[in-house]
Amino acid sequence: NCFPIYDLTTSTDVKTTSIRVQRMPLSRARGSGDEEYFLTLPPSEPITVSTRFARGNEGLRPMSKAAAQLEREEAERRGHARRSVFACGVDGLEPGHRYRVDVAKAGLMSFWWVWGTKEDVLVDAGSQDWGLDSVQVEETPLEIVGEIEGVEFEIEE
């Protein structure tokens, strides 16, 4: 897990799960929904990466472990999709608890990378070369220098 969560209230790690959805291969076409996943990392320059930490659907509120457990039991009773017993994103984090989300350097170093800028890698929309098959992936692990700051937050009811 690249983003471990620690419950500061109970001094315990939060067991998490990730959802894997079958999807089309990553597209490197400019303007595609995948463009946000391409970054230029200038050597020896700090970079800030941010994203929202919430459920995918803006209208849904996060659920505590107890609420997620009830939803899972109800779905299983009806024969519907299974749900993990561990926290998934913001679900499973408890109201009134304070948490810290960190970034695991080892996980980030396992991602593929290429020499060049984001603009060097992206292609025009409609290009037949939109996939990643023709990109020369670097075999050398990415070196991350310095600390990566985590973030602390509290879950409110």
Give start-end ranges of low-pLDDT stretches: none
SS content category: little secondary structure
List the secondary-structure elements in sequence, H or E.
EEHEHHE
Strand elements, count: 4
Can you summarize the main beta sheet? Answer: 4 strands, antiparallel
Describe this entry's structure for a reader.
The protein has 157 residues and is largely without helices or strands. Helices cover 14% and strands 9% of the residues. The chain is built from three helices and four strands. The chain has helices spanning 65-77, 105-109, 118-121, and strands at 5-7, 12-14, 98-101, 151-154. The protein has a four-stranded antiparallel β-sheet with strand order 2-1-3-4, with no helix packed on it. The model has no long low-confidence stretch (mean pLDDT 75).
